């Protein structure tokens, strides 16, 4: 009786991971900012003071409200055609977070399936797939995405597809490596002896034990996707005007860098803050999920 | 070691074939008539169309086209730009020094500052220096560099007027192109002020291009140093009474450098991607700007050739890093 009182109550693995994650101040800060961003994106139509594409012709290039010539109704100022920058940034959050979500979903799903197949089947298929992944990784990612967009035609959806193709090899490689490490372990052999089929072995037995590095990679890819999509938008190959996507907003703002600093500053700041928050979460997750680092 | 080099070279062959295959398929995957896309001529007569079809070899079977393409590559035939009518390889060579100069300065800046910051953060682990350095590295790592470039232009070019906004050299200077590297050519020319102009033009693009590699190298150096500093031989070195500078500088840094060198090598691909953004913002006449201009001009022969040449450059750099790695670390050779 005394023994059971002395041992702490069992903790679920999820809770244990959360406690570890929550010990890092940076990770919690990142998560808080990120959740605020998500909330902003979801509520954008309700909280945005103006329509994102409505042009106030009497208020072109109004500076932010706290400056001398600012107007209280345009908190972050207006752009060259009189659109409220704050409203555009709030709506832009929907695009950026949506881009991250879609790109990572495509890259993760295809990468995991390809990596599982390569690692599980092995042999010639493995060699072929891994060569293909090497080839994709031989190109600078932004260049490859640009060329893919040149083939598919400019636009937000094609840009997302191109970025997903470029990010996918990382998932395939990680999954394959994890599968190779796991597939001859005893629990897998036991499941096979017990009569589990190939698909069950791949997806139900092995995959859940490879999730740690994949989750970390997914987080990092999320921020990469946002940065690359903004870069493509900036180069005119991603989201097209008047979409309030942050990169495209910067492209439109480029000619005003000498005259209207706020048009340039605000969208970039939004990108930077979002990406920092996601990278903070990524760092926290890596420390939590990487057993090698956990010892310290 | 020879065997290691040979094996590495053999491994390049499938990658090389794959890269060429992708570049080869690129033109053929484009929507529309490839002849019209490549020729860049309007209102073609059927005869002219047929002649061009034969000239580009599109009337041949696919495998034959690919073999001809590869054979052409070995003769240095990377296609002809339809906007300038000059060979793609020639255009690439004319612009490559500009990118190389910028990339070299960027990687130098990133390596020197990054390693110094990483070592400092590792040695002072947990202190405010560590937190500040890693905080800055996180911001750098998360930076949309095209926006960063615009901010720097606002601050240093439009507000302070310290640096020029675009190009490689002030218009007041003219001197012969000897090496293609502005820093060297302007120095050789002996014109007063020319070298300074070249340096001033380089500063902002170098900072922008170096930002992400710098952050990555600083983070990598810190974690490599922390790992090494925890080793037993470090305690031995300290207990022998060696000075802290010698322990950190000689014993720790030398062993921590192996993963750091690999990281620096991997940054080359990042640099080539970053060059597209940096060069297009600063009107830097290198291959990054050339690629983005060609894409928007739909000069697809240039896009195809440039894509292939850039991938080859990245491949060769990675090969060099691999070989260096094998030279430094005998364990790699035996794998």
Q: What does the model show?
A:
- The complex is a heterodimer of chains A (296) and B (335).
- In chain A, helix 2 crosses helix 12, helix 4 runs parallel beside helix 7 and helix 7 packs antiparallel against helix 10 (211-234).
- Chain A has a single domain, classed as Orthogonal Bundle (MetI-like fold).
- Chain A has 13 helices and no strands.
- Chain A is mostly helical and 296 residues long.
- Chain B is an all-alpha fold and 335 residues long.
- Chain B has a single domain, classed as MetI-like (MetI-like fold), CATH 1.10.3720.10.
- Chain B has 14 helices and no strands.
- In chain B, helix 11 (244-281) runs parallel beside helix 12 and helix 11 (244-281) runs antiparallel to helix 13.
- The longest helix of chain B has 38 residues, at 244-281.
- The radius of gyration of chain B is 24 Å and the shape is globular.
- Classes of the chains: A mainly alpha (296), B mainly alpha (335).
- The A-B interface holds A 26, 131-132, 134-135, 138-143, 146-147, 150-151, 153, 223, 227, 230-231, 234-237, 247, 250, 254, 257-258, 261, 264-265, 267-268, 271-272, 275-276, 279-280, 283 and B 14-15, 18-19, 21-22, 26, 29-31, 138-139, 141-144, 146-148, 150-151, 153-154, 158, 269-270, 272-274, 276-277, 280, 291-292, 295-296, 300, 303, 307, 310-311, 314-315, 318.
């Amino acid at each position: 009786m005394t023994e059971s009182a002395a041992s702490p109550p069992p903790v679920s693995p999820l809770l244990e991971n959360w406690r570890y994650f929550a010990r890092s101040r940076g990770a919690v800060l990142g998560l808080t900012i990120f959740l605020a961003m998500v909330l902003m994106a979801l509520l954008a139509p309700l909280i945005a003071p103006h329509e994102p594409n409505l042009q106030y012709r009497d208020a072109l290039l109004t500076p932010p409200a706290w400056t001398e010539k600012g107007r209280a109704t345009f908190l972050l100022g207006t752009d060259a055609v009189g659109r409220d920058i704050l409203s555009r940034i709030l709506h832009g959050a929907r695009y950026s977070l949506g881009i991250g979500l879609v790109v990572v979903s495509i890259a993760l799903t295809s990468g995991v399936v390809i990596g599982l197949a390569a690692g599980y089947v092995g042999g010639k298929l493995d060699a072929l797939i891994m060569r293909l992944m090497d080839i994709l990784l031989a190109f600078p990612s932004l260049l490859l995405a640009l060329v893919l967009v040149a083939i598919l035609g400019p636009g937000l959806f094609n840009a997302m597809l191109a970025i997903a193709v470029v990010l996918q090899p990382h998932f395939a490689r990680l999954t394959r490596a994890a599968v190779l490490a796991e597939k001859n372990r005893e629990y897998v052999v036991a499941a096979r002896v017990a009569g589990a089929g190939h698909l069950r072995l791949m997806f139900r037995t092995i995959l859940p034990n490879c999730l740690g590095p994949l989750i970390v990679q997914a987080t990092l890819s999320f921020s990469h996707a946002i940065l690359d999509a903004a870069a493509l938008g900036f180069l005119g190959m991603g989201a097209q005007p008047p979409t309030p996507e942050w990169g495209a907003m910067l492209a439109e703002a480029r000619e005003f860098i000498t005259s209207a600093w706020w048009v340039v500053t605000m969208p970039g700041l939004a990108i930077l803050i979002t990406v920092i928050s996601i990278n903070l979460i990524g760092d926290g997750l890596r420390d939590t999920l990487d057993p090698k680092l956990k010892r310290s | 070691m020879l065997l290691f080099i040979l094996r590495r070279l053999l491994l390049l062959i499938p990658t090389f074939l794959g890269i060429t295959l992708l570049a080869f398929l690129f033109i053929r995957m484009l929507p529309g008539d490839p002849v019209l896309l490549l020729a860049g001529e309007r209102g073609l007569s059927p005869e002219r169309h047929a002649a061009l079809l034969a000239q580009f070899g599109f009337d041949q079977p696919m495998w034959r086209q690919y073999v001809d393409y590869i054979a052409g590559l070995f003769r240095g035939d990377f296609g002809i730009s339809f906007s300038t009518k000059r060979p793609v390889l020639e255009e690439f060579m004319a612009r490559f020094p500009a990118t190389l100069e910028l990339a070299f300065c960027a990687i130098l800046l990133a390596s020197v500052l990054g390693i110094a910051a990483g070592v400092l953060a590792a040695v002072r682990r947990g202190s405010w220096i560590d937190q500040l350095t890693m905080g800055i590295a996180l911001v750098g790592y998360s930076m949309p560099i095209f926006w960063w470039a615009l901010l720097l232009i606002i601050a240093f070019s439009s507000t302070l007027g310290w640096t020029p906004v675009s190009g490689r050299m002030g218009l007041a200077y003219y001197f012969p192109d000897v090496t293609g590297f502005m820093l060297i050519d302007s120095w050789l020319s002996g014109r007063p002020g020319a070298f300074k102009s070249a340096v001033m033009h380089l500063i902002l693009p170098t900072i922008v291009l170096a930002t992400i590699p710098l952050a990555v190298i600083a983070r990598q150096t810190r974690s490599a140093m922390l790992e090494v500093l925890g080793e037993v031989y470090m305690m031995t070195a300290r207990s022998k009474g060696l000075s802290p500078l010698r322990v950190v500088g000689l014993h720790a840094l030398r062993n921590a450098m192996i993963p750091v060198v690999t990281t620096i090598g991997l940054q080359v691909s990042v640099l080539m991607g970053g060059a597209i953004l940096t060069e297009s913002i600063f009107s830097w006449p290198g291959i990054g700007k050339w690629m983005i201009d060609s894409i928007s001009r739909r000069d697809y022969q240039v896009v195809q050739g440039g894509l292939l040449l850039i991938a080859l450059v990245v491949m060769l750099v990675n090969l060099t890093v691999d070989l260096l790695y094998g030279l430094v670390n005998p364990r790699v050779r035996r794998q």
